[in-house]
Every structure is written in structure tokens, then in C-alpha cells.
Fold each of these.
Amino acid sequence: MKILVINCGSSSLKYQLIDMNTESQLANGLVERIGIDGSRIKHEKVGMDKVVIESPMKDHKIALNFVLDALKDEKHGVIKDINEIEAVGHRVVHAGEKYSESVLINDEVLKALKDCIELAPLHNPANIMGIEAMQELLPNAPMVAVFDTAFHQTMPEKEFIYAIDYKYYKNYSVRRYGMHGTSHRYVSSRAAEILGKDLKDIKMITCHLGNGSSIAALNNGKVVATSMGFTPLEGLAMGTRCGDIDPAVITYLMKKENLDAEQMDKVMNKESGVLGISGVSSDFRDIEEAAKDGNHRAELALDIFNERVRKYIGSYSAILGGVDVIVFTAGVGENSISNREEIMKNFEYLGVDFDSNLNNVRGKEAIITKPNSKVTVVVVPTNEELMIARDTKALSK
Ligand code: ADP
């Protein structure tokens, strides 16, 4: 069974075609600059060099048509006929409180996604465009929506209600939703598999540390707390997002710098985080380089990032009443040996016996604590696409 996984942004889209008999990727790619000058598709048949095709693509439907053409191209394609694609899985950012699991898409689901646009104005419209375009291009294929927010829906009320007037929750659905749910779900189940344990018996903290970062606390395999909130802005210090901040800073700066709501939003989402602190870059590799050269603000950015992760691990172990397994994933979590080591410092009290030699890995599964460590720390490369494909397979049977 071949499943196409699609992740649509407003001007870009990523895709993977996965053979579910072997759970292996056949091809993947990225379409950039949809609807603007310089549209192009970068397509890769697994095992071959990437090809780049430049052509005007004024909307998502045209872009997805290019994707289907690339997938069945004689030279770098992997299928003969588009009907070999038996189902399509769509990454969808926000399902509000409506869905706590993936769903087969029908008119009612599409309407529910449209109702959530206000909660994810940058993401849901693009996700919906992708779904509607694929429905036109592959009318017979079942389509499944896999939500970023769904896995966090098990959080208790005390974790998702903010300490503001309850009427804002009632009137405008203002509450914590959490993001990266598909990643937290994949790495938590994979970590349990690697350790040969049942998720039901483990207290786990999963750290998705990438350009956007979030942490989740899981009891019995279910999320009980997570660091992203109403939007992906809350929680850790990120590439360009500020994460937790005294809310009074926002109104103070708006007055001082004469910023309107949109400008302030940009400051917090695009100009803050490790980029804002370091003034160097949002990419941790650049910041590490600068820190090595003695750049104080780069060192500070890394210190603040690591300290915030430590704080969340500490507070989540308090919520869970201890922790058995800590998982690192995403760009920084999978690859940054020094960040992992810095973060794990000071956790001896929790029972972490860290092993610097075992930690000397990038981008692959590894246990990085000593065999007798009370808490096991694991690196698990995330695979959201595979998780989406698995859900799609299960729901489209
Ligand atoms: P997202 O999906 O949120 O865009 P990723 O999970 O792909 O982000 O993470 C991207 C980040 O991972 C980059 O900004 C970079 O800082 C970091 N990263 C990638 N490789 C390394 C590495 N070898 N060392 C440190 N950081 C890395």
C-alpha cells in the first residue's frame, strides 16, 4: 500500500510517498514559493540525487499536480499511475477541542477545520487548501487528517486552563492546546519500543527541540502537560520565538516602541528566541560556532535555551511524581551533543547517570545514560510522516 503524506504551508509544501508494506520512504520533496515568483519543486527519489524543477505554480492545486507528475515521472518517479496512491495523509495544525485523534476526512471534518481557522490563521487555511486540491486531483483516494494538537487533548483541565477570566475560554476557546503532537506521539512509542517497555508503565518526558521546540509530560502514554500553549509561542526559548515571558513586557514594549498588535506579534514570533538573544542566527550550529569564538550573547542564548529546557524537565518530573524516561528529538535534540549534555547536567538528583561517550551521536537512535541509570535518556529521531502514514493506513482500510 502506497500512501502520500502532505504537509502544506501557505507558500510551500512538503511530501513523502511511503510504501506501507515495508514502512519505507520511496520519494520525498518540497515545493517552494507557491503563488509567488520563482516557484520550484525539489524532488528526490530515494537513492537518487535531488532534481529541481522550476515552473510557475500559482496555487496549491497546480503545485500538487507537479508533485504527482514528479512521482510518476519516467526517470525520477516511483509509480506508473497516480492511482497507485491508495490514500493521502494530511498534516493539519489545529483541531481545537474537536478531535483528539486522526480522522477520515469528510465534509463535516472539513467544516470543523474551517471553524478552527481563527485558532491557527497561518496554518489551517493552507492545510485546507491542500486537502481540497488533493480531493480534486485524486477523487477516489481516502484522505486522513492528522492533527498537531490531537495528542495533547488528554491534558487535564488544570493544565490547559489559563489563570485569566474563565469567560475567555468559554467565549473564545482561549486555552492551552499544545503542538508537535504527532512528533511527541511517535517518539514516545518508539522510545518504549527501544527500551522494551510498555508505555503504560512509564513516566516519560519528551523534548522536541528544533527550530520550534516543545516538551510534553506523559503518564501511561498519555499527555498530562505540554509547554506550547494557545499558540506555538509559549514555553521554551526557540529559534525565533520568545516562549515564556512576563505578559506585562508585551504591553510595556508596545507603548515604548509604539507597536501595534501585529508588529508586537512579529517581535515575539520572528525576532526573539536564540536569534534575538544572540543577534547571530536562529540556527543552533551558527550560535555554537559563535559561542566557541567567545561571543557572549551567543553563549547566553545557549545558556538560556538549555536552562529553560531544564526548568521544564524539572517541573514536569514534579507533575509526574518522578520520571523514568526522557526523550530528545528534532533538529537540536537529535543532533546537538553539547546541548544534550548541558541540559542533562544537574539531573543526578533525579537519578540520571549520563554517559558522555554514549551521547556522542547525531541523528540516530541511542540510549545516552549508563545501563544502571534510574532514569533512561534516549535520542529518537522523529518521524512525523511515518506516524501520519500509519494513521492514514489504519483509517482508510
Ligand atoms: P523545524 O522542523 O522546527 O523547522 P528542525 O527540527 O528541523 O526544525 O530543527 C532545525 C534546527 O536544528 C536548526 O535550526 C538547527 O539549529 C538545529 N540543528 C540541526 N543540526 C544540528 C547540529 N548538528 N547541531 C546543533 N543543532 C543542529
Amino acid sequence: MTRKSYGPKTFLANNKKLRYAVVGLGHLAQVAVLPAFANTRNSELTAIVSGDETKLKKLGKKYKLEHTFRYGEYDSALKEVDAVYIVLPNHLHHEYTVRAAAAGVHVICEKPMADNEKECKAMIEAAAKNNVKLMIAYRLHFEESNLEAIQKAQSGKLGELRFFEGTFSEQAAAGNVRLTESVARGGGPVFDMGVYCINAARYLFRAEPTSVTAFSASGGDKRFTKVDEMTSAILRFPGERLANVNCSFGATEVSRYSIVGTNGTLTAEPAYNYGFPLKQKITIGTKTRSKTFRKTDQFAAQIMYFSDCVQRNREPEPSGWEGLADVRVVTAIYESARTGKRVELGSFPERPRPGMSQKISRPAHRKPSLIKAEAPTE
Ligand code: NDP
């Protein structure tokens, strides 16, 4: 049965659950995105899009879906839904977002937004022109420990904020698309992991960096022929503040940031992950307090938020501008690492930033079994 398609303008009046297609059925889609819909009140999984027949068949059955599509049928998929959640490799985010927007379909697109600033701007323009909402999937913008860190940093408890240190590393699995696509096509650790540290520095300082200096290094492992093994960057922020960002595909897992002020330090570790509890430690003078935040379904939270934005005709935060703000820093980091020179960033429009009012907690679910999908780590 073909269901009526509600366009972006008419949806508001219907106030029904937003119908989604998930595009790309890799590791993240299967482990976190597909199961999240059952954990929302205002969104339903209606269709899946994949290049793999077995995944379509098995996941279509598991989630009791009426509609399954191959990539060649993407235009038909867009007729059946109000929104898409794009979980494709980075170099495909632009194409699949622009096509959805042109069909009047709202878009959640995974981070990083795209391979370069030009593509990000085209995605923002496509959404605006077609009157659809576009959100980049920064799930930590709805997650309690990160929102509390922002609140603490802004409260003055740490004194004047002076520097940020963020590290995100893992052992990337050989053959993963993060290693096989070049940096020009969104591969490499800065696009994949550095983005979390850059984003955290920006939301904790509540500012945009003005210049960047970076170094990349590779220790000769065969995995790192197309992309760097690791990159470290220093971002200069207004107010004579610095952020040091480190990311690696060739080291043990570290997921951490510290924001350091004139009176105290807040350290989050693990800071960026989903699927297990996040932790925080605040030291002011000689007193240290630790806090563990319970594991939640961060993907259900962001899907609920986005559907609510569509239903209320509100611009999501994180919008496409938030994705662009990070991609321009990633691009500058790789330019600096390549040229050995400092890269000036220029000004960037001030946009809404995440805050505690965005907190949404949904209960965690069990890890689902996977069909032809591999974790990105060794
Ligand atoms: P995977 O490599 O596991 O999955 C990507 C899927 O995309 C593939 O399984 C495949 O699905 C589809 N695909 C279509 N074309 C290609 C192609 N040319 N090469 C490879 N795959 C292709 O990646 P992840 O699921 O780990 O990551 C997907 C996206 O999600 C990335 O943008 C990543 O940055 C982001 N991500 C975000 C996280 C977060 O916490 N927000 C965490 C992890 C990833 P099919 O077989 O169905 O066609």
C-alpha cells in the first residue's frame, strides 16, 4: 500500500509521527539508529535504503517495514517518507542530503557534515530553498554530561576559561571506509574523531576559533597509506584562549576533554561515546568531585528533538551551520598540516549553541545483532 506523502508545509497540520527512511545500513545504522525509533514518541521508521539485498531483507523483516529500497530507488524512497536519516560514509552525505531536500524531505545527516565547506554550503542552501529542516547528528548536544559541562564552564565556577585539551583515539580496523577514502573524500581521523574535540572546544568556549596550526604523523603502519594516522592541532580562540585537539586511528582508545579555567578544571572521560556511561570530574582548588552519567539512547533523543523541530517549524540546533563550522576547522587543520603554516579562519556567523534546555534522556536499549556490518575499530 502506498501512503500519502506529507510535504514539509502540510506536515505541521497533521501532527502525526514523522516517517523516516534510514539511508545506509552499516555499523552505526544497525547498532544505534534503527533501534532508536522505537524509543521515540514522535518518529517512526518507515523505510530503509541499502546496497545490500540481505540487509534489506533481514532488517526489513526485523523492523516490520513495508518499504525497502536500493540506492537506485532513492527517489522512490523519498516519496514514502517525511525525513531521512543519512548514515552513509562522509563522501556521500552531500549528494543524499541535497536530493532529499529537493524532494521536500527533511534531513538528519551524520557528522561530519560533508568533505568540504562548498558541499556544506550547498546542503544548507538546498534545505533553505526547499523549506525543509536540516540537522547534523551531534548527539552530544542533547546528552546530559556534555550539557552539564557547558553549564559548569559558563557558570564561572572554573574561573576564567583559559584552555581546552581534547583527545579522541582508537585503533581503526583495516579496510574500513575511514581509512580507504582519502582526506579529500572525508577519510582520516580529523573528519571522523577530531570533529568531536573541535565541537566540544567550540561549545565549551562558546566561540569560533580564529586560526589553526596542526601536524599530522604516521608511524608506517600499512593502514595509513591513504590517510594520516594521527593529527594534533592548536586552535586559537578569541580572548587569548587555546584548544589543543588530538585524534588518532592508530592508538588505544582515549575519549577525553578537559576545560581548564583560572580556578578549576573539568575533565570528561569517557567524553564522546554512546553505549556506555559517561563520566566527569571537577577539581576546584583541593576539592575533586566525580560524577557518572547513566547510559541513555542518545540517538532516540536527537531523532525526537529533530521531529519536534519539524512539527513546530523550528530551526534545529545543531543546524547545517554547526556542521559547516566544524568542517571549516577540519579543512584548515589539514591545510596547516600539509603546508606547515598557520591557517587564518576569518569570521563566522554567531548561531545558537547547545544548552541544558536541549537535554533529552531516553532509556538505553540492548545491543542488537548485526547483519554484514563490522565495528570501525580493531
Ligand atoms: P560503516 O562503514 O559501518 O557503514 C557505512 C554504510 O554505508 C555501509 O555499510 C553501506 O551500507 C553504505 N555505503 C554506501 N556506499 C558505500 C561506499 N561507497 N563505501 C562504504 N559504504 C557504503 O560506517 P559507520 O556506520 O560507522 O558510519 C557511517 C556514518 O556515521 C559516517 O558518516 C560516520 O562518521 C558516522 N558515525 C557517527 C557516529 C556517531 O556517534 N554519531 C558513530 C559512528 C559513525 P549498505 O551495505 O547498507 O549499502
